[in-house]
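Tokens as discussed.
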């Protein structure tokens, strides 16, 4: 349950432009699609994928860290880590099971399967879109557990794209189609309130002192 009084207290510190920007951005945020990157060795690629999620309105990015324990490149992400929720998993199994339990179908993006081209993909179902390593692609476990496969149509000699490029193409295409559909893809009211609170806290530099002041004045 969101503490509305606390939210109002924090938002009163922000400028009106900042608060209006939050509401405008949240109108276009969705969890209908979620993105998953698997063991990306070059973390600037994960950071770039995060940036694409933020720009095109995907609220959650899931990172599987089964082999490589690296941190987000904040310079590449350009602040996107403040506005996108990052869920980390220590195994493929844990990630897939969690997303399936939330009602997502598992979609493996790969140039080696002909299941579905990007323009033909059914956007009506909540989907978790998996992207694999730069060299080897997705692991066999994900390919085996996938509910479907998705590929970007290509007409050149090169058969694959850099992960950050392919993710940007797919995310832009699917989110644009989603916003122009009749599908109920928006965040819930509770989710919007939670993001307003989190983003307000991320926007206030001396948040610990502000929180302490609020608690001292309001908690008996």
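Sequence:
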């Amino acid at each position: 349950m969101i503490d509305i009084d606390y939210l109002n207290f924090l938002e009163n510190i922000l400028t009106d432009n900042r608060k209006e920007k939050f509401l405008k951005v949240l109108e276009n945020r969705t969890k209908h699609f979620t993105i998953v990157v698997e063991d990306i060795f070059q973390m600037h690629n994960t950071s770039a994928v995060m940036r694409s999620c933020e720009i095109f309105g995907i609220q959650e990015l899931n990172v599987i860290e089964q082999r490589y324990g690296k941190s987000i490149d904040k310079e590449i992400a350009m602040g996107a880590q403040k506005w996108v929720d990052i869920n980390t998993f220590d195994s493929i199994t844990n990630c897939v099971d969690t997303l399936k339990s939330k009602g997502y179908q598992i979609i493996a993006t790969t140039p080696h399967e002909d299941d579905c081209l990007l323009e033909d993909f059914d956007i009506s179902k909540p989907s978790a879109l998996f992207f694999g390593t730069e060299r080897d692609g997705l692991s066999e476990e994900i390919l085996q557990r996938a509910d479907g496969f998705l590929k970007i149509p290509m007409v050149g000699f090169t058969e694959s794209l850099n992960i950050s490029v392919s993710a940007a193409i797919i995310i832009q295409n699917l989110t644009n189609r989603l916003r122009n559909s009749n599908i109920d893809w928006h965040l819930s009211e509770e989710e919007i309130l939670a993001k307003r609170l989190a983003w307000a806290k991320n926007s206030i530099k001396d948040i610990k002192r502000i929180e302490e002041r609020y608690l001292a004045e309001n908690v008996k």
